[in-house]
Write a structure and sequence with these properties.
Layout lengths: L1 E2 L6 E2 L52 H6 L1 H6 L7 H6 L4 H34 L4 H7 L3 H16 L17
Antiparallel strand pairs: 1-2
Amino acid sequence: MAICNNCGGQIDGTTGFCPTCGAPVAPTPPQGMPGQAPYQQQYQAPPAGPGFMNTPETTGEYSQQDINQNKAMAVLAYIGILVLVPIFAAKESKFAKFHANQGLILLIVDVIVAILIMVLSAVILAISWRLYWVSTILSLLYIPLLGFSILGIINAVNGKAKELPLIGKFRLLK
């Protein structure tokens, strides 16, 4: 039995008022079977990994023979200026061309970041030589680019045509 919040008298729960003081009381909800837990929705974990890592994979568009013959060319595409090797030596391979495009975009972004870091470091050091540590921190911008290169090499070795995060959607080579 429930207890009235106003007077402390016992309430049978069937009426909307306390029989002792007449205060309005919310009726008690019907109880389920004893021992039965109320329904609770199961927790569903969010998808693993950050969203920017979920990039399209187009491996099915390339023949297995093309992939197997041009894995080395695809790996070279992610090693700086060596991107030129698959661009000129594997013109007929769609798989090598895909990775050469990814590597060329990565190389262009590398050059842009290097120029940006040099200019910002020069400006910061012109302000005061004691701010040299800021240019050291700026050089940490190379770490994600190194990670993209490693990710591209792993995809190439595994025979996958998967875009690089953030920069892979751009096409320079047709």
